[in-house]
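Hi W.,

Here's what went into the run:
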Amino acid sequence: MIMIKKTIPTFLLLFILMLPLGVYSQRTANQILNGLYNKSMTTKDYSADAHIRVDLPFIRMLPVDATIYYKQPDKFRMKSKGIAILPRQGFSDFSKSIRDTNSFTAFISGYEILSKTNATIINFIPGSDTSDLILGKLWIDANKNLVLKSQLTTKSNGTILIEYFYISQIIYGLPDSMIFTVDVKKFKMPKGVTADINNTGTKDSAPAKDPKRGKIFIRMRNYKVNKGLADSIFN
Amino acid sequence: MFLKSIYNEFIKIAAKPRSYLGLAAVTLLVGVILFAMKADGLSFISFITASFEQTLSFEGNILNGNLIAFLILQMLIIHIPLLVALVTGDLVSGEGAMGTLRLLLTKPISRTKILFSKFLAGAFYTFLIILWLGFLALVVGRIVFGTGDLMVLNSDGLVIIQEPDTAWRFLSGMCVAYLALLTVATLSITLSCFSENSIGPIVSTMAIIILFTIIGTLDVKIFDHIKPFLFTTHMAAWRNFFEDPLPVKEILKSAGILVIHIIVLLGIAVFKFNKKDILS
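Here's what came out:
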């Protein structure tokens, strides 16, 4: 009897300690990704004003304002008066890549607290050898079906890390701001075409703190979700 | 008398067919570049930005009149000295070859003033060449390709300059480019004072430009001390106006070195021209 009395609190304590883990473990990685995909499907189309600030070692430019248009399943267009730069990945291709759960293997690799939110870390590896994607890693708020952070490693583009911040369009899972961290080690300007033969060495050649990585900051405003967008916008 | 002498010198330049060769060559070259860019400019741009486009997507009208103007200036500023030297290298030696130098020097005007009038006429011709190049590159380029932000291609990356910010940069860049061409014109006039035929100064000017350019591009330590003082090093200083942030110190330094070259070369030319034996 004494033995039982001693064991019960221990079990109870263990149960309480493992409770959060149990709640997370209730849903598998594929179920979480399905929830994420279903949420993304609630957005048929959207347009938004984007303020883009580029902080890349090899590109110097002032912040640019642009308008971004998206329509399911994968139509994406950015319009700007001047030249704007966006990362190739991270906008329209995301829901497409998690649509078919049979094309990749996903598993929960851990949990992390991101901005006071419990995030489930899901890794996914493509089933095909020919896929450009090598490894995908998502930090997901499983309760709200929101991607808080993603890290995609591809053969062609290296690793791209995206942080998402939600305020106004949390219901649709559309971020108000994003920070893209991209690999820039492959950026090389062909000297022949620049014809910079008489370069007098005037440029500031001070090495950057982290010359292999660059960031693109995008702030989204004036979202217009599911208002209907003509296909002609994307031509 | 001095103004009339300048006018006369310019009339002499205008009367020579070779003077129009420069303008025609610039027109033809710009025409070829505009045609090539219109036909296959996008693939040219994608070749340049290929390493960026793997990760980044560029939106907006990249292939616009401003980029075309920049490419034209970049391609032609190096070659235009030949067209300038073709005319200015003949200003003094041409008179000697034709036998009109003696007659010219009998005028009631000092030799220095005659040389200065030749220099100013040559400077005006150089100005016309660069003005015509600027017109074709900027005005015609914008008509054909429209306008937009300028993507400048440097060996260390890309600088994207917003459209309202381009006009003053082009204007200032053209001024520095003019200063560089004026240095070439002055060099050829100076060499012209040492020669009795036209070919010598023209070929010598080009030879000096080629030699200095090669020294400038050679990555050899022994030349590092002289490179900053070669005028060819500063012939591309106009590009500095398309940097961000603007390297004001470097621009002023380049302009200063080019002006010093002009003054020194002009001094040598005046000295030689005043000492020139026209009796033999």
